[in-house]
Design goal:
This protein is mainly α and about 60 residues long. Helix content is about 75%, strand content about 0%. The chain contains two helices and no strands. It has helices at about 15-50, 55-60. The N and C termini lie far apart (about 70 Å).
Amino acid sequence: MIAREIPIAEPRPAAAFGNVVRLAGTLLCLAGVAVLAVALRLGVYEYFHGEGRVVAWVWDALHP
């Protein structure tokens, strides 16, 4: 059989949609990790080089 004669199965719409959803979830997770890393870096920097207001505000917000 010649290679150009081999039938290629096209992806079904449900499979393609699942791939898009999986990619979107991965990107959102990575964005969340990046935001968390930046927030922690800002908080640590503020704690050691500032007045610690950001860390105190976050602490108060999480522990009412």
